[in-house]
């Protein structure tokens, strides 16, 4: 896992500040030929607005397309970021009381307020690595107080080659790359995750980036949650996940980082933002 605080400060000093995606300037020649075909609208630059910093990880305030303004807001992070410790293989937490706090960030990465959880709505490290906290504040209360909207969850499976940004509220740093592909099974120590997102090498995420939203640059929607990377080339050990294909063949990619898709959890978010694992299309493991 992209654990926080273990070597993270040194890594941050070595790697330097994050760089937002660059937008190329239109050339004079391109402007002259614009009459032939209108250019596609430029993607909005990904900012930190809606991301949060946890005590040990990153996260984001998220909503499904059907979430109402009066619903209690949800914070997305990793299962291995839970204050209760790493869930064991096969363990699923649902509706556990929590008073955890989160620092809400604005577009520039400045902390603008503190949000508080009422419970761990869902958490697991089985098949995926995610946690969802229900907050004591609604979406409209957060927007009214801080002028910040929640990030919307994408409902479809992401596509290889998509330009993405990993936005870490913990470090106030972004990482830009593409989705390189998908992993049948990603094994790390005792845990196995399915259909994981593999980044291209440019996303060199570090400890503390765990739980960061992975944002589609073109749509601004969350397609995954950042969770791990192979640090030293070991095979299937803690902090060194390995890839296992459909035939059982193992591949180790030192220095490559990964995320867990989030489209399959959207159908699990029901009326009032309540997690309902029996809803049609819900792809999350049950207790």
From TrEMBL:
One Pfam family it belongs to: Trypsin_2
Molecular function per GO: peptidase activity
InterPro entries in UniProt: Peptidase_S1_PA, Peptidase_S1_PA_chymotrypsin
The protein, known as: Serine protease
UniProt keyword list: Hydrolase, Protease, Signal
Keyword set includes Signal: yes
Organism: Streptomyces rhizosphaericola
GO process annotations (BP): proteolysis
Domain of life of the source: Bacteria
Signal peptide segment: 1-24
């Amino acid at each position: 896992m992209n654990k926080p605080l273990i070597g993270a400060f040194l890594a941050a000093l070595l790697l330097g500040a994050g760089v937002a995606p660059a937008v190329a300037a239109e050339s004079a020649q391109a402007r002259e030929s614009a009459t032939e075909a209108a250019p596609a609208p430029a993607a909005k630059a990904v900012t930190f607005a809606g991301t949060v910093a946890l005590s040990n990880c990153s996260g984001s305030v998220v909503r499904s397309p059907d979430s109402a303004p009066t619903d209690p807001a949800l914070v997305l992070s990793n299962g291995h970021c839970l204050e209760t410790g790493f869930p064991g293989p096969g363990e699923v937490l649902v509706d556990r009381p929590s008073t955890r706090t989160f620092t809400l960030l604005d577009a520039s990465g400045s902390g603008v307020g503190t949000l508080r959880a009422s419970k761990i709505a869902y958490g697991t490290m089985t098949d995926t690595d995610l946690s969802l906290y229900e907050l004591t504040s609604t979406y409209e209360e957060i927007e009214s107080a801080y002028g910040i909207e929640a990030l919307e969850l994408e409902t479809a499976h992401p596509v290889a080659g998509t330009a993405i940004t990993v936005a870490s509220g913990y470090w106030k740093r972004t990482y830009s790359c593409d989705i390189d592909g998908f992993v049948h099974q990603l094994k790390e120590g005792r845990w196995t995750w399915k259909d994981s997102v593999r980044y291209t090498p440019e996303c060199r995420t570090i400890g503390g980036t765990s739980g960061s939203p992975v944002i589609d640059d073109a749509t601004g929607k969350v397609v995954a949650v950042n969770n791990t990377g192979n640090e030293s080339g070991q095979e299937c050990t803690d902090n060194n996940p390995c890839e296992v294909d459909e035939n059982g063949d193992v591949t180790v990619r030192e220095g490559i980082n990964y995320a867990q898709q989030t489209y399959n959890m959207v159908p699990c978010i029901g009326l009032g933002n309540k997690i309902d694992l029996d809803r049609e299309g819900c792809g999350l493991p049950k207790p």
